[in-house]
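Write out the 3D structure for:
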Amino acid sequence: MSDFWNVPWAFVAVAVAIVISAAPFGFARSTTARRKALDRLAKSVNLAVPTARDEDERIGARLATRERCIAIGGGLGIVAAILASFFVPGFGDYGFASMGVFILALVGVAAGAAVSALSTTRDLPSDVPRIARLTTPTVRDYLPRLESVSATVAVALAVVATVAAIVTATTTMDANIGAFALPIVITVLAVASLVGVALVSRRIVERGQRAGSTLELAWDDAIRSTALRDLIGVPLILGFAGVLVPMVVLIEDVPLRQPYTSADNIVAIVAMGVVGLVVLIGLVVAIVSVASRPQQYYRRRLWPLPERTATAGTGSVR
Protein backbone atom coordinates (compact mmCIF):
# COMPACT_ATOMS: atom_id res chain seq x y z
CA MET A 1 0.00 0.00 0.00
CA SER A 2 2.93 2.30 0.69
CA ASP A 3 3.95 2.04 -2.99
CA PHE A 4 0.61 3.56 -3.91
CA TRP A 5 1.58 6.81 -2.23
CA ASN A 6 4.91 6.90 -4.05
CA VAL A 7 2.92 8.06 -7.06
CA PRO A 8 2.40 11.87 -7.11
CA TRP A 9 -1.30 11.58 -7.86
CA ALA A 10 -1.96 15.31 -7.69
CA PHE A 11 0.65 15.91 -10.39
CA VAL A 12 -0.76 13.02 -12.41
CA ALA A 13 -4.17 14.74 -12.34
CA VAL A 14 -2.63 18.03 -13.46
CA ALA A 15 -0.73 16.27 -16.26
CA VAL A 16 -3.94 14.59 -17.46
CA ALA A 17 -5.69 17.97 -17.51
CA ILE A 18 -2.83 19.48 -19.51
CA VAL A 19 -2.92 16.66 -22.07
CA ILE A 20 -6.68 17.03 -22.50
CA SER A 21 -6.40 20.82 -22.84
CA ALA A 22 -3.72 20.34 -25.52
CA ALA A 23 -6.21 18.44 -27.70
CA PRO A 24 -9.49 20.41 -27.59
CA PHE A 25 -10.45 19.57 -31.17
CA GLY A 26 -9.77 15.87 -30.72
CA PHE A 27 -11.86 15.66 -27.53
CA ALA A 28 -14.78 17.74 -28.89
CA ARG A 29 -17.82 15.49 -29.33
CA SER A 30 -20.41 17.75 -30.93
CA THR A 31 -20.22 19.79 -34.12
CA THR A 32 -20.63 22.99 -32.11
CA ALA A 33 -17.79 22.09 -29.76
CA ARG A 34 -15.53 21.20 -32.67
CA ARG A 35 -16.35 24.48 -34.38
CA LYS A 36 -15.54 26.46 -31.24
CA ALA A 37 -12.28 24.56 -30.81
CA LEU A 38 -11.39 25.25 -34.47
CA ASP A 39 -12.22 28.95 -34.06
CA ARG A 40 -9.92 29.23 -31.04
CA LEU A 41 -7.14 27.42 -32.87
CA ALA A 42 -7.57 29.63 -35.94
CA LYS A 43 -7.18 32.75 -33.81
CA SER A 44 -4.11 31.26 -32.15
CA VAL A 45 -2.32 30.56 -35.44
CA ASN A 46 -3.71 33.68 -37.17
CA LEU A 47 -5.62 31.92 -39.95
CA ALA A 48 -9.15 32.01 -41.29
CA VAL A 49 -11.54 29.16 -40.58
CA PRO A 50 -12.14 27.14 -43.78
CA THR A 51 -15.58 27.75 -45.23
CA ALA A 52 -15.72 25.24 -48.11
CA ARG A 53 -17.08 21.90 -46.89
CA ASP A 54 -14.45 19.66 -48.53
CA GLU A 55 -11.63 21.90 -47.35
CA ASP A 56 -13.08 22.03 -43.84
CA GLU A 57 -13.32 18.25 -43.72
CA ARG A 58 -9.74 17.73 -44.86
CA ILE A 59 -8.29 20.21 -42.37
CA GLY A 60 -10.58 18.94 -39.61
CA ALA A 61 -9.53 15.35 -40.24
CA ARG A 62 -5.85 16.28 -39.93
CA LEU A 63 -6.45 18.21 -36.73
CA ALA A 64 -8.49 15.41 -35.21
CA THR A 65 -5.84 12.81 -36.06
CA ARG A 66 -3.08 15.01 -34.66
CA GLU A 67 -4.86 15.64 -31.39
CA ARG A 68 -5.86 12.00 -30.92
CA CYS A 69 -2.19 11.06 -31.39
CA ILE A 70 -1.21 13.72 -28.85
CA ALA A 71 -3.76 12.46 -26.34
CA ILE A 72 -2.68 8.83 -26.76
CA GLY A 73 1.02 9.71 -26.54
CA GLY A 74 0.53 11.93 -23.49
CA GLY A 75 -1.61 9.27 -21.81
CA LEU A 76 1.02 6.60 -22.41
CA GLY A 77 3.65 8.92 -20.97
CA ILE A 78 1.61 9.42 -17.81
CA VAL A 79 1.07 5.66 -17.48
CA ALA A 80 4.82 5.16 -17.88
CA ALA A 81 5.45 7.65 -15.06
CA ILE A 82 3.00 5.83 -12.78
CA LEU A 83 4.64 2.47 -13.51
CA ALA A 84 8.08 3.99 -12.92
CA SER A 85 6.93 5.23 -9.52
CA PHE A 86 6.06 1.64 -8.59
CA PHE A 87 8.90 -0.30 -10.16
CA VAL A 88 11.93 1.94 -10.92
CA PRO A 89 14.24 2.31 -7.90
CA GLY A 90 15.11 5.92 -7.13
CA PHE A 91 12.44 7.38 -9.44
CA GLY A 92 10.80 9.13 -6.50
CA ASP A 93 13.99 10.24 -4.75
CA TYR A 94 14.16 13.94 -3.81
CA GLY A 95 10.63 14.40 -5.18
CA PHE A 96 11.76 13.76 -8.75
CA ALA A 97 8.67 11.65 -9.48
CA SER A 98 6.59 14.84 -9.76
CA MET A 99 8.96 16.19 -12.41
CA GLY A 100 9.03 12.79 -14.09
CA VAL A 101 5.27 12.82 -14.62
CA PHE A 102 5.44 16.02 -16.65
CA ILE A 103 8.59 15.02 -18.54
CA LEU A 104 7.16 11.67 -19.63
CA ALA A 105 3.81 13.27 -20.50
CA LEU A 106 5.63 15.83 -22.66
CA VAL A 107 7.68 13.11 -24.35
CA GLY A 108 4.45 11.25 -25.10
CA VAL A 109 2.79 14.37 -26.51
CA ALA A 110 5.80 15.09 -28.72
CA ALA A 111 5.91 11.48 -29.93
CA GLY A 112 2.21 11.66 -30.80
CA ALA A 113 2.74 14.93 -32.67
CA ALA A 114 5.63 13.40 -34.62
CA VAL A 115 3.68 10.27 -35.54
CA SER A 116 0.78 12.40 -36.71
CA ALA A 117 2.97 14.76 -38.75
CA LEU A 118 4.76 11.86 -40.43
CA SER A 119 1.68 9.82 -41.24
CA THR A 120 -1.27 12.10 -42.00
CA THR A 121 -0.41 13.57 -45.39
CA ARG A 122 -3.56 12.93 -47.40
CA ASP A 123 -4.06 12.57 -51.14
CA LEU A 124 -6.34 15.13 -52.72
CA PRO A 125 -9.38 14.10 -54.76
CA SER A 126 -8.64 13.93 -58.49
CA ASP A 127 -10.85 16.95 -59.23
CA VAL A 128 -9.10 19.22 -56.73
CA PRO A 129 -6.12 21.23 -58.08
CA ARG A 130 -2.94 21.00 -56.05
CA ILE A 131 -1.46 24.26 -54.76
CA ALA A 132 2.33 24.50 -54.59
CA ARG A 133 4.77 27.20 -53.50
CA LEU A 134 7.77 28.46 -55.40
CA THR A 135 10.27 28.02 -52.56
CA THR A 136 10.90 25.03 -50.30
CA PRO A 137 10.48 25.78 -46.58
CA THR A 138 13.10 24.70 -44.06
CA VAL A 139 12.95 23.90 -40.37
CA ARG A 140 13.85 27.53 -39.62
CA ASP A 141 10.62 28.63 -41.29
CA TYR A 142 8.56 26.64 -38.78
CA LEU A 143 10.59 26.66 -35.57
CA PRO A 144 11.35 29.94 -33.74
CA ARG A 145 15.06 30.45 -33.31
CA LEU A 146 14.61 31.27 -29.62
CA GLU A 147 13.17 27.81 -28.97
CA SER A 148 15.77 25.89 -30.98
CA VAL A 149 18.69 27.82 -29.47
CA SER A 150 17.25 27.52 -25.96
CA ALA A 151 16.99 23.72 -26.35
CA THR A 152 20.58 23.45 -27.58
CA VAL A 153 21.91 25.66 -24.78
CA ALA A 154 19.87 23.80 -22.16
CA VAL A 155 21.24 20.43 -23.26
CA ALA A 156 24.82 21.76 -23.33
CA LEU A 157 24.40 23.19 -19.83
CA ALA A 158 22.97 19.86 -18.66
CA VAL A 159 26.13 18.09 -19.79
CA VAL A 160 28.32 20.68 -18.06
CA ALA A 161 26.25 20.65 -14.85
CA THR A 162 26.18 16.85 -14.61
CA VAL A 163 29.91 16.46 -15.20
CA ALA A 164 30.73 19.29 -12.79
CA ALA A 165 28.45 17.84 -10.10
CA ILE A 166 29.94 14.37 -10.41
CA VAL A 167 33.52 15.66 -10.32
CA THR A 168 32.75 17.88 -7.33
CA ALA A 169 30.96 15.15 -5.41
CA THR A 170 33.60 12.48 -6.02
CA THR A 171 36.63 14.68 -5.34
CA THR A 172 35.45 17.09 -2.67
CA MET A 173 32.83 15.04 -0.85
CA ASP A 174 33.95 11.44 -1.52
CA ALA A 175 30.41 10.71 -2.71
CA ASN A 176 29.37 7.59 -4.59
CA ILE A 177 28.85 8.17 -8.30
CA GLY A 178 25.83 5.87 -8.05
CA ALA A 179 23.91 8.74 -6.45
CA PHE A 180 24.09 10.47 -9.85
CA ALA A 181 22.51 7.66 -11.86
CA LEU A 182 19.32 9.65 -12.49
CA PRO A 183 21.13 12.88 -13.54
CA ILE A 184 23.31 10.86 -15.92
CA VAL A 185 20.27 9.17 -17.47
CA ILE A 186 18.45 12.49 -17.89
CA THR A 187 21.47 14.14 -19.51
CA VAL A 188 22.03 11.23 -21.91
CA LEU A 189 18.34 11.35 -22.87
CA ALA A 190 18.57 15.13 -23.37
CA VAL A 191 21.48 14.77 -25.80
CA ALA A 192 19.81 11.86 -27.62
CA SER A 193 16.49 13.71 -27.89
CA LEU A 194 18.18 16.82 -29.31
CA VAL A 195 19.74 14.75 -32.09
CA GLY A 196 16.54 12.75 -32.64
CA VAL A 197 14.36 15.85 -32.81
CA ALA A 198 16.65 17.42 -35.41
CA LEU A 199 16.36 14.32 -37.62
CA VAL A 200 12.59 13.94 -37.20
CA SER A 201 11.98 17.65 -37.78
CA ARG A 202 13.85 17.46 -41.06
CA ARG A 203 11.80 14.44 -42.09
CA ILE A 204 8.57 16.27 -41.33
CA VAL A 205 9.57 19.35 -43.34
CA GLU A 206 10.73 17.24 -46.30
CA ARG A 207 7.34 15.56 -46.66
CA GLY A 208 5.22 16.80 -49.53
CA GLN A 209 2.40 19.25 -48.90
CA ARG A 210 -0.83 18.31 -50.66
CA ALA A 211 -3.19 21.27 -50.48
CA GLY A 212 -6.17 22.25 -52.60
CA SER A 213 -6.04 25.98 -51.77
CA THR A 214 -3.75 28.60 -50.32
CA LEU A 215 -5.67 28.48 -47.08
CA GLU A 216 -5.26 24.71 -46.81
CA LEU A 217 -1.54 25.09 -47.49
CA ALA A 218 -1.30 27.70 -44.74
CA TRP A 219 -3.09 25.36 -42.32
CA ASP A 220 -0.63 22.63 -43.24
CA ASP A 221 2.18 25.04 -42.37
CA ALA A 222 0.51 25.84 -39.05
CA ILE A 223 0.16 22.16 -38.15
CA ARG A 224 3.79 21.48 -39.10
CA SER A 225 5.03 24.40 -37.04
CA THR A 226 3.06 23.25 -34.02
CA ALA A 227 4.45 19.72 -34.35
CA LEU A 228 8.04 20.96 -34.54
CA ARG A 229 7.49 23.18 -31.50
CA ASP A 230 6.06 20.20 -29.61
CA LEU A 231 9.15 18.18 -30.50
CA ILE A 232 11.72 20.80 -29.49
CA GLY A 233 10.08 20.97 -26.08
CA VAL A 234 11.48 17.51 -25.24
CA PRO A 235 15.22 18.34 -25.30
CA LEU A 236 14.41 21.74 -23.82
CA ILE A 237 12.74 20.38 -20.71
CA LEU A 238 15.17 17.44 -20.43
CA GLY A 239 18.07 19.89 -20.64
CA PHE A 240 16.45 22.07 -18.00
CA ALA A 241 15.97 19.02 -15.77
CA GLY A 242 19.52 17.91 -16.55
CA VAL A 243 20.82 21.11 -14.98
CA LEU A 244 18.53 21.10 -11.94
CA VAL A 245 18.61 17.43 -10.93
CA PRO A 246 22.38 17.08 -10.33
CA MET A 247 22.34 20.32 -8.35
CA VAL A 248 19.50 19.02 -6.18
CA VAL A 249 21.38 15.76 -5.60
CA LEU A 250 24.40 17.77 -4.50
CA ILE A 251 22.32 19.91 -2.14
CA GLU A 252 20.54 16.92 -0.60
CA ASP A 253 23.69 14.84 -0.15
CA VAL A 254 25.93 17.55 1.30
CA PRO A 255 26.27 17.26 5.11
CA LEU A 256 26.19 20.78 6.55
CA ARG A 257 29.10 21.22 8.93
CA GLN A 258 30.88 23.74 11.09
CA PRO A 259 32.46 26.03 10.14
CA TYR A 260 30.02 27.37 7.60
CA THR A 261 32.91 28.18 5.27
CA SER A 262 33.77 24.51 4.87
CA ALA A 263 34.05 23.10 1.35
CA ASP A 264 30.83 21.07 1.66
CA ASN A 265 28.82 24.13 2.67
CA ILE A 266 30.25 26.17 -0.17
CA VAL A 267 29.29 23.40 -2.61
CA ALA A 268 25.71 23.43 -1.31
CA ILE A 269 25.47 27.23 -1.52
CA VAL A 270 26.82 27.28 -5.08
CA ALA A 271 24.41 24.51 -6.10
CA MET A 272 21.46 26.41 -4.63
CA GLY A 273 22.59 29.52 -6.47
CA VAL A 274 22.72 27.58 -9.75
CA VAL A 275 19.20 26.26 -9.17
CA GLY A 276 17.85 29.76 -8.51
CA LEU A 277 19.67 31.22 -11.51
CA VAL A 278 18.48 28.49 -13.88
CA VAL A 279 14.88 28.88 -12.72
CA LEU A 280 15.09 32.66 -13.18
CA ILE A 281 16.57 32.38 -16.66
CA GLY A 282 13.97 29.77 -17.59
CA LEU A 283 11.14 32.09 -16.51
CA VAL A 284 12.59 35.02 -18.46
CA VAL A 285 13.01 32.94 -21.62
CA ALA A 286 9.46 31.57 -21.25
CA ILE A 287 8.00 35.07 -20.87
CA VAL A 288 9.92 36.37 -23.90
CA SER A 289 8.85 33.34 -25.94
CA VAL A 290 5.17 33.69 -25.07
CA ALA A 291 5.27 37.44 -25.78
CA SER A 292 6.65 36.74 -29.26
CA ARG A 293 3.56 34.65 -30.16
CA PRO A 294 5.56 31.62 -31.34
CA GLN A 295 2.42 29.86 -32.62
CA GLN A 296 2.31 32.55 -35.36
CA TYR A 297 6.02 32.42 -36.20
CA TYR A 298 5.46 30.35 -39.37
CA ARG A 299 2.92 32.98 -40.51
CA ARG A 300 5.49 35.75 -40.31
CA ARG A 301 8.08 33.64 -42.17
CA LEU A 302 5.99 32.01 -44.88
CA TRP A 303 2.97 34.29 -45.23
CA PRO A 304 4.31 37.82 -44.62
CA LEU A 305 1.27 39.58 -46.08
CA PRO A 306 -0.75 42.23 -44.27
CA GLU A 307 -3.49 40.67 -42.17
CA ARG A 308 -6.89 40.29 -43.79
CA THR A 309 -5.50 40.83 -47.30
CA ALA A 310 -4.23 37.45 -48.51
CA THR A 311 -7.05 35.77 -50.40
CA ALA A 312 -7.07 32.02 -50.73
CA GLY A 313 -9.65 30.64 -53.09
CA THR A 314 -12.54 29.91 -50.75
CA GLY A 315 -11.37 32.23 -48.00
CA SER A 316 -8.53 34.40 -46.79
CA VAL A 317 -5.42 33.22 -45.04
CA ARG A 318 -6.54 35.84 -42.57
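The two ends are 56 Å apart (CA to CA).
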